[in-house]
Amino acid sequence: MYRLRFIKPFLKAYKWHYLFGLFWLLLVNIMQLIIPRILGSVSDGLAEGILDSSGLLRYVGIILAFALVIVISRFMWRIYIIGTSRRLEYFLRNRLVEHLQKLSPEYFNHHKTGDLMAHATNDINAIRMAFGPGIIMITDALVISIITIFLMINQVGWQLTLIALIPLPFLATGAGFFGKVIHKRFKNVQEAFSNLTDKVQENLSGIRVVKAFVQEQAEIKKFNEASQHHVNMNMRLIVIWGALFPLIQVIATLSMVLILFFGGRAVISGRISIGDFVAFNSYLGLMIWPMMAIGWVINVIQRGTASLDRVNEILSEKPDITDAKDAVELDIQGEIEFKNLTFEYVKGIPVLKNINLKIEKGKTLAIIGRTGSGKTTLVNLLLRMANPPKGTLFIDGVDINKIKLRSLRENIGYVPQDNFLFSTTIEENIAFGLKDYTFEQVEEVAKIAQVYDNIMDFPDKFGTILGERGVTLSGGQKQRVSIARAIIKEPAILILDDSLSAVDTHTEEEILKGLKKIMASRTSIIISHRVSTVKEADEIIVMDDGEIVERGTHEELVAQGGLYYQLHIKQLLEEKVNMA
Ligand SMILES: Nc1ncnc2c1ncn2[C@@H]1O[C@H](COP(=O)(O)OP(=O)(O)OP(=O)(O)O)[C@@H](O)[C@H]1O
Q1: Measured from the CB, is residue 373 less than 6 Å from ligand 1?
Q2: Residue 1 domain-assigned?
Q3: What whole-number distance in Å separates Cα of residue 354 and Cα of residue 341?
Q4: Of 64, 68, 242, 323, which residue is 20 to 30 A from 415 by alpha carbon distance?
Q5: pLDDT at res. 303
Q6: 364 and 476, same structural domain?
Q7: Neighbours of 154 (CB within 10 A)
Q8: DSSP assignment, residue 321?
Q9: Which residues make Cβ contacts (< 8 Å) with residue 234, sequence separation at least 6?
Q10: 565 bridge partner residues
Q11: Nearest-atom index, ligand 1, CA of 417
């Protein structure tokens, strides 16, 4: 029952739906079981010559009435059981996606998107099958076989019933064995499929890299291999399914043959009537379906439980970045302080070492440094995309771990290095997550970010829909839309992580000029590789291998003649060469 812990609330809320559905299902079963008895009586009546036309018509009327009730009942159980299983699918998928949203970026570094997509599709589908068709099959199989056996004994005695049922234990063990193999092979198919999804997803997201490195053929080959593996795994599953059904058929036929022989002899010797024989045969016919269902239902339930285990595993994953119990809502002013901050993603490998830094409210800090020196990690901690150690990072004097995540992130305007844009309109991308905004605001921030004119050149202007990852925009345009998205929030803290790298120095200057007004009243952090981007900042820090190695204003750092100075000279030379 522990397995059901996450879907318990749903099952509780919908128990009456299931019970109501089961009621109709049982009604169908009972009706189906009575019909053979009626057929038996008709046969006897006909054989004994005591049935006239009006009597026959009465029986026809009864069977028709039964058929009508069966039609209505089937409709009802389908609505109530299959319908409820579809609601379960909806409930579980929403719960899963909601939970995934709460997990930290680190979780997604360690779990493939393709796998997670497979959980959200295949696994949830398998759970739905278990809680819809699976429940129907089990009920059918149990109710029909138990009542049928009882009726068979009642009709022709236990000896003949026993003979008819001899093949059944073989069927049960055979189905059990096949169920196990099917489950294993199905798992392999699932894994192969997840691998396939992953490949497609990576290939489409990375299409530019694939093309630029002329790797189309190599990628197609890799995909074909994965695809072939998926087919092979499916073939192995088909083989076992293919063997299962004939086996069930053989066993069912064996029962029929036994009954034909022994039942026929009983009729000849007069121990049972022809009517009994007909009814008994119909009962046996009714038993075949549940028998066949056994093999199928074992598979469905096994798949369902395996899928439920996988989904449970994700749902049990505790989000590691959450609000502390005593977290406070903070109207952030923008003072930031790092105190002796040392941070490591992997134990024993510090990426930031002993960082001491204070940024006064409204000031601008620029960070420059080699790639991998820890610049992005610094802002990741500020956004709490990772947890900084206690007592090392403060905003307005409050330990960042004690600030409610929502109030922290709502007060930070962040332009990430990877400018992800959604496949929606430019306007919606800029106003992302804002409930109240005016179109004028969108236009204004687009102007500040120097992307307004570009947008107005598109036929649909702000209504232009962007492709996946904003493919209709150039790298620089994407960066500027991202900047507009960050500043429309009017955040207390603005962070630009290498956000001007794809624009030329002239546009950069224009953007910085536009941002100056915005930044005057906000605390800003600008990360860049370019001296031209950072030189106006109130303080510049130079990072190297997780440490602050130089700090000061542009003039001070140039005067120091260190790393910053060398970078400055190198970039000045580059500019001159470019202009020449
Ligand atoms: N999630 C992570 N898990 C483990 N190590 C990480 C993780 N993210 C970054 N790192 C490592 O931390 C170090 C600092 O990375 P970071 O992204 O902060 O550098 P950066 O200065 O921003 O580089 P760039 O200028 O290239 O963006 C690198 O050595 C990187 O490999």
Answers
A1: yes
A2: no
A3: 5
A4: 323
A5: 82
A6: no
A7: 11
A8: S
A9: 189, 192
A10: none
A11: 27
Q: Which of 490, 513, 538 is the last residue of a domain?
A: 490
Q: Is residue 270 part of a domain?
A: yes
Probe ligand 1: pick from 107, 320, 343, 345, max atoms within 8 Å of CB?
A: 345
Regarding the beta carbon of 377 and ligand 1, being less than 6 Å apart is answered yes
Q: What pLDDT, on the 0 to 100 scale, is given for residue 89?
A: 94
Position 181 pLDDT exceeds 90: no
Tally of domains in the chain: 3
CA of 342 to the centre of ligand 1 (A): 14
Q: What is the pLDDT of residue 55?
A: 84
Domain boundary among 282, 301, 316: 316
Atom of ligand 1 nearest to the CA of 543: 21
- Lookup: tokens for 468: 């996946």
Ligand 1 within 6 A of 351 CB? yes
CATH number of the domain where residue 187 is located: 1.20.1560.10
Same domain membership, residue 169 and residue 37: yes
What is the ipTM score, two decimals? 0.95
Question: Does the CB atom of residue 29 touch ligand 1 within 6 A?
Answer: no
Which residues does 206 contact at the CB level (< 8 Å), separation at least 6? Answer: none
Q: What's the domain range around 443? A: 417-490
280 and 338 fall within a common domain: no
Looking at the structure, tell me whether residues 150 and 270 fall in a common domain. Answer: yes
Same domain for 156 and 268: yes
Tokens of 190: 């699932």
Q: Summarize pLDDT for 466-523 with one digit per residue, the tens.
A: 875 555 787 788 888 999 999 898 889 999 988 877 777 777 777 788 788 888 888 9
One domain, residues 120 and 242: yes
Whether 101 maps to a domain, the answer reads: yes
Question: Count H helices, E strands: the chain?
Answer: 23, 10
Strand partners, 393: 338
Please give the distance, rounded to the nearest whole angstrom, from the Cα atom of residue 445 to the centre of ligand 1: 30
Q: Is the CB of 376 under 6 A from ligand 1?
A: yes
**Do both 37 and 171 map to the same domain?**
yes
Question: CATH number of the domain that 390 lies in?
Answer: 3.40.50.300
- Best mutation site among 320, 351, 498 for ligand 1, i.e. most ligand atoms within 8 A of its Cβ? 351
The reply to whether 429 falls in a domain is yes
Which residues lie across from 337 on neighbouring strands?
A: 358, 394
The protein residue whose alpha carbon is closest to atom 17 in ligand 1 is 376
For ligand 1, the distance from its centroid to the CA atom of residue 418, given in whole angstroms, is 13
Q: Assign residue 49 a region: left if phi > 0, alpha if psi is -120 to 50, beta otherwise?
A: left
Per-residue model confidence as pLDDT tens digits over 22-49: 999 999 988 887 887 788 788 888 888 8
Ligand 1 atom at minimal distance to the Cα of residue 386: 1
Strands 539-544 and 364-369, sheet pairing: parallel
- Is 26 found in the same domain as 125? yes
Residue 358: which pLDDT band, with cuts at 50, 70 and 90? very high
pLDDT at residue 283 tops 80: no
Summarize the confidence of residues 148-175 as an average pLDDT: 80
- For the chain, the average pLDDT equals 86
Give me the mean pLDDT over the 78-84 stretch. Answer: 94
Distance CA 60, CA 81 (A): 31
CA of 106, closest atom in ligand 1: 1
